[in-house]
Structures are given as C-alpha cells and as structure tokens.
Amino acid sequence: MVFRFFTFLPATRFGPLAGFGGIIVALSILVVEDEQQVRAFARKVLEKAGYTVIEACSGKEAVSLVGTVHLDLVLTDLVMPDFEGLELIRRLRESNPDLKLVAMSGAFEGQFLKIAKLLGVKATLHKPFVPGALIAAVQSACHD
C-alpha cells in the first residue's frame, strides 16, 4: 500500500507558492528590464510577495538565461537595446511555448502592449506602475 500526503497551506495574500506533495516551491520570475531602477523596483515588489526573482538587463541576456534556469514566468520590458521585447517574446514563444509572459511598457501610448498581446503574452503592464498592478499582472498570467 502506498500512502501519499499533501500539505495544504492557507492561501497567501498574493499566492506565489505552489505546493507539490508537501514541498513548497516559490514561483520563479525572470525580470527583463534595461533600466536598473525599474528592474530593482520590480524585484523588490516580487520578492516581498514571495516570488523568486532573476534579473536580466537585456533581451540578449534573457535569451541566454532561459535555457539554464527554471522559470515560471518572464516579465519583460518592450523597448530595450540589443533587441526589443517584442523580439524576445517571439523567440521565447518559439523555444518555450508554455512559458508565461508579461509585457510592460510606457512607450508609444500602449501600442507595443497591444502587439505583445497578439504575440501571446498573458498580461500587460503600463509603466510607471504601482506594486499592486505588478502583482495583479503576475497573478493574472500565472492563473490563466
């Protein structure tokens, strides 16, 4: 006879933890943003909410990280040097179609965010954003 046990924890305010047979795992998010202050702000908010955060300062760096670490979600800016976030989204969709994506931008009156949605991102975020909007976008993408 095989016994299995599951530990059910009370829901957290933001729900960043996933339970698998008694093991609790913080969801892992890659934040791709060329502006250091925005990247640091996003990291602080997400870590405070219980997520594990990895940072990349460019799309090129993000592509190199994706194959080397486990990721549940990528939060990417759309206007960056090297190649833009839309190109990063396209590449991630090709190589990892199940990876959840959130796009953020403050440029071009949200037009790039509309294109990102067409490319398959689960949620979008207008910059500048407040902590609650960031958490809401991440939660929306994770639970879609």
Structure description:
With 144 residues, this protein is an alpha/beta fold. It is built from 5 helices and 7 strands, in the order E-E-E-H-E-H-E-H-E-H-E-H. It has helices spanning 36-48, 59-66, 85-95, 111-118, 131-142, and strands spanning 17-20, 23-26, 28-32, 52-56, 73-77, 100-105, 123-126. It has a 5-stranded parallel beta sheet with strand order 4-3-5-6-7, sandwiched between helices. The chain has a two-stranded antiparallel sheet with strand order 1-2. Helix 2 packs parallel to helix 3 (85-95). The longest helix has 13 residues, at 36-48. The radius of gyration is 16 Å and the shape is globular. The model is unreliable at 1-15 (pLDDT under 50).
In percent, how helical is the residue content? 25-40%
Largest sheet features: 5 strands, parallel
Strand order of the largest sheet: 4-3-5-6-7
* Order of H and E elements: EEEHEHEHEHEH
Number of helical stretches of at least 4 residues: 5
- Beta-strand content: 15-25%
Q: What is the general shape?
A: globular
Strand count: 7
Given helix and strand content, the structural type is: alpha/beta
Q: Taking all residues together, what is the mean pLDDT?
A: 85
Note poorly predicted spans. Answer: 1-15
**Whole-number radius of gyration?**
16 Å
Distance between the termini: 36 Å
**What is the assembly state of the chains in this entry?**
single chain
